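ARCHIVE CARD
SHELF: 3
SLOT: left
DATA:
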Amino acid sequence: MPLLARMLAAPMVIDVRPGAVASLGNVLADRRIATSGRVAVAVGPSQGDSIAAELAIEDAEIFRVPDGTHDTAVQLGKRLRAGHYEALAGIGGGRTIDVTKFAANMAGIPMIAVATNLAHDGIASPTSSLEHESGKGSYGVMMPVAVLVDLDRVRCAPQPLATAGIGAARVTVLIGELAGAASPTRADTPLVGADLASEGGRFTVPLDPGFEHALVVLTGSLAVGDTPVVPGHLAYLGQGRERLALAAEGTTRALLLGGEPLGEQIVMSWNFVGRSRDEVAQAAADWNAGAERFGEVDSDLARIPAP
């Protein structure tokens, strides 16, 4: 039987990490991308200007992308052709990257995508979605030759933009980092919290193997392997997992929680956590006695006694 082969295009460089934008100069200096170093940088209206100001890229001209329209993309493409540029870097969100992909394709030059948020699927796709006078259209373009995602910059994005798609699920990172998306919420210890939403289907969530994880289903049902997890139950996933394969049955919402292990056994009872049963029993006795260790609560409600 003959073997069918198919070539799949992929970026030459993919750099996803804190501080990744600092490598943009080196990427643009790659002679596979630009032989003489005449490059352009297109920046969006949000973080693009501040990123461009930090970069020391010789002879790079900065173009500003005010919106995500077809007209803006065509104008940028004409300026790139007239300037005989060899490569274009687009810094910004989905609209900025879609405009720069279209313009670079029009000018016949390679494009580098530098994403400042993850709330879109255009980072490396071979299409541009652009607005025009009668709505929005999708245009086939060459995919970026390099993709940079700086997690420090993603963390600075507004909360609704700290969202990523994973298979049949939408993931909103509430704290920490997950699947390339990062929450701007301050975390005093290494941990992660994410809202998983699915209309049904299978998806796999990448995990930090150094964390302990647990899954709490709010609505619907999620299967961890062959084990269904339903509301009212917590699925303890332990430590050491690099990924978590899940299957949602219908509309489902769940919370994924994780963090560094405490390094010691703990005992939990009611609202108390301790290292031994004696510590927890003493905490309950102190609470019921109104001990100073718990402070005073200014409320008309009676204190609920510990069981």
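SLOT: right
DATA:
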Amino acid sequence: MRTSTSCRLAVVLLAVALVASGCVGEPVSDRRTPPAAIGPAATGSTETGSGGDEPAAAGSTVRWLCAPGRKADPCSGPLRTTVRERGARTRVVTPARPRPARRPVDCFYVYPTVSNQFLPNATPTAAPEVVSIARYQAARFSSVCRVFAPLYRQVTVLGGLTPERSAEVAYRDVVAAWRAYRARRDTATRGVVLIGHSQGAVMLRRLVRAEIDPRPRERRRLVSALLLGGNVRVAPRSTAGGDFRSVPLCGRAGQTGCVVAYSTFAEEPPPGASFGAAASDPTTPLLGYRPPAGSEVACTRPGRLLSAPRTPLALTVPTERFAAGGVRVAYEASYPGARPTAATPWVAAPDRYAARCQRANGAHVLRLRPLDGSRPLRQLDPRVGTHTLDVNAGLDVLVAVVRRQARAYVAR
């Protein structure tokens, strides 16, 4: 039975979820998209060169938001950061960023639901909100990897009314970009980290399942996949099974070829949570396959991947305000106080959070508890937790995890 796709439309307008309207469509059959079904990606760009458009297949063109050699690249801005911490002196740090050719691996980033457009699928353009999300989520990984981020016709709020059809359009663009990336001569021997949040994580769940998991050669290229806020499935209380047959969850420092996945909550998730709970998972209509019966949503404790499970997480964001729109509202309503500011391009807010995976009310989530007088993160809706901040709450820990995985990948 198909249920209403508009019951949480206000939540989606704030981009706290991809179809987090609590709208679960009719299940679809378990199928993997065959190569013949992948149609043309978006066309019409006039950019050229290694960082611009490039052919993906006959009649198709991939447009890049971020790529090596691209002039206006939001994933390669300055990283100088003001670090604040309660009881400690404020300091300014600048993460080292080698030249692109000297970064040991690549990152392939797919952004979350962010478009302000009122179309079923957004046009693949570098709109201000798209530029902002790449800067907020992907730019700091450029200290470790060359960042590739395709523009794609993502599912919008309106597309949530026809989620299966709109998701196929979005996925065609993502998989075309992936194949274009893999076809580049300068990627032939490089490992790759997949990074996605919310809708971006769902698109990459499909891509890993269809393009990487069944192919040993592609699995060997996978450094890791950071699939946050996308309800990745595993067998109950396991690091394997679920969405993927051969790609497990990451469970130890330096492990490669694995997945990091979680959804953050500042409070215990309620029954019917949109993230972390398999029984009320709203992402199913976007997947193109039915998640295995009896599977649970995965949760990875990020500090464990640094051999320090109790590593506190800090909220790290750009000081430039997010572009106008629903996602700006969601970000600023989720901060523990006023929007963090500083004289540097980035700021780490003074609050610190203990992170631990928790099972409650049928959900499996990463609980963030404030430490040492820190202020709690705010939740727009208890069913979605702190979804907007999944990446930024602990961003530098994630970058450190990828750096360690990249070293292990190169050394193997």
